[in-house]
Each structure stands twice: as C-alpha cells, then as structure tokens.
Amino acid sequence: AIEQAAPAPQLASAEVSPASVLARKLREHTPTASAKRDPFSKPRAASTEAPKAEVDPNAEFITAFKKDHTLRSVMLLSDGSGLAVVGEKRLRIGDTLGDFILVSLTTRSAVFSRGELRIELTLESLGTGTDGPLEK
C-alpha cells in the first residue's frame, strides 16, 4: 500500500505565505524601470569638475614664514639635543623664533610650533645655495 502525502494546508486569506512576503519585499527594493540602468550601455561621464580642496586658513602665513626664515644648517648631537641655524640665529629645541617654538629637529628639517600650527623648514639641496660648493 502506497501512502499518499497529505496535501499542503491551504492558508486562509488572512494568513500570508512566506513566499508572498519575500515577493513583496523584493518588489519594494527593486528599482523601478526608470531607475534601472542597462548594464551594456556606456558608463556615465564622470564630473569634469575637480574636487574642491580645503583651503588652509594659515596657508599665506606659512608661506610668508618660510620665505622670511631660511634653515641654513642642522646639527644633531649624540645626547639627543641639537642646534638649528635659521638665518643668522642659532636655536636649540625650546628656543623661540618670533612667537614660534622650535619643537623638533631632523637631519634635514626643523619644526616650529605655535599652538596647533606647525611649520617645517627644510634644508635646501646641496649646491643650490648662494655660497657655492664646499671646498677643502
């Protein structure tokens, strides 16, 4: 004797089948025909407008500071201290230049700080100075 499977229970009209819920959700999240894009069409043209860069409110001041102050040399000592020559002034870390404090030195730069503003002066490449090449 072969047993037949019982027929699937019919849902009352007040009940909603899982398939109909899924179909409704898919319709809600599927773009309308006007919003659909042909996947084989040419890509939309990118905007030719360059992205707007943020303007640093201190840019002019930083440029003027760098123009007025030239880092001539940096000397780092084994004890962690150092000396920077800016223009005709010899400065150690913690010394001031105007209202800026010399906060750090590397072999090729000096960093000055005033509050949150930091300005890095760098050494020019060898041979580009007005004093000419070094000779023995």
Explain what you see.
With 136 residues, this protein is α+β, with helices and mostly antiparallel strands. The protein has helices at residues 18-29, 59-68; strands at 71-76, 82-86, 89-91, 96-97, 100-105, 109-114, 117-122. The chain has a 4-stranded antiparallel beta sheet with strand order 4-5-6-7, covered by helices on one side. A hairpin with a 3-residue loop joins strand 5 and strand 6. The radius of gyration is 36 Å and the shape is elongated. The model is unreliable at 128-136 (pLDDT under 50).
Report mean pLDDT, rounded to a whole number: 77
Strand fraction band?
25-35%
The secondary-structure class comes to: alpha+beta
User: What order do the strands of the largest sheet run in, or round the barrel if closed?
Assistant: 4-5-6-7
Tally of alpha and pi helices: 2
Number of DSSP strand runs: 7
Low-confidence sequence ranges: 128-136
Along the chain, the helix and strand elements come as HHEEEEEEE
What general form does the structure show?
A: elongated
Largest sheet: 4 strands, antiparallel
Cα-atom Rg, whole angstroms?
A: 36 Å
Report the end-to-end length measured between terminal Cα atoms: 114 Å
Helix content: 10-25%
Features:
alpha+beta; four-stranded antiparallel sheet; 25% strand; disordered C terminus
Question: What is the structure about, briefly put?
Answer:
By secondary structure, the protein is α+β, with helices and mostly antiparallel strands. The protein has two helices and seven strands, in the order H-H-E-E-E-E-E-E-E.
